[in-house]
Amino acid sequence: MSNLSRMECSNLFAVRSRMLKVKGNYKNKHTNLICRWCNNKEESQIHILTECKEFQSITGNNKYETYYDDNNQTSVIATRIIGKVVTKIQEQEKPNEPN
After folding, report:
1. I need a labelling partner for 54 at 20 to 30 A (CA). Which of 27, 35, 43, 85 fits?
2. What residues does 34 pair with on adjacent strands?
3. What is the pLDDT confidence band of residue 68, given thresholds at 50, 70 and 90?
4. Angle, helices 6-16/72-92, rounded to nearest 10 degrees
5. Predicted model pTM
6. According to the model, what pLDDT value does residue 3 have?
7. SS3 sequence, the chain?
């Protein structure tokens, strides 16, 4: 963790504590839990980080366990991926309009 920026640590913590801003982590806020990008499966962290076709150009073929690995090199790669995912999620969200 000492090689990561504050934002990278925050993003990694968000994934590890299931606080990534996806519908599945905030079920009480959403009536429709289907993925807003692929409209195929429930929008969960696992789906976004490993399965969703719309995120595969960002996430590659990484396994979900990658985001829990404490290896320094793996953590750096994971945080870069998470940062791009978080940015894409934030771009999709609209203020005062539940997705």
Report:
1. 27
2. 42
3. very high
4. 80
5. 0.85
6. 77
7. CCCCCHHHHHHHHHHHCCCCCCHHHCHHHCCCCECCCCCCCECCHHHHHHHCCCCHHHHCCCCHHHHHCCCHHHHHHHHHHHHHHHHHHHHHCECCECC
Spatial separation of the C-alpha atoms in residues 41 and 34, rounded to whole Å = 5
Domain-wise residue ranges, the chain: 6-89
Tokens 């829990």 — which residue? 68
Residue 85 predicted with pLDDT over 80:
yes
Q: Which two tokens stand for residue 78?
A: 């994971």
Tens-digit pLDDT profile for residues 18-40: 999 999 999 999 999 999 999 99
79 forms bridges with which residues in the sheet? none
Residue 13 pLDDT > 70, yes or no? Answer: yes
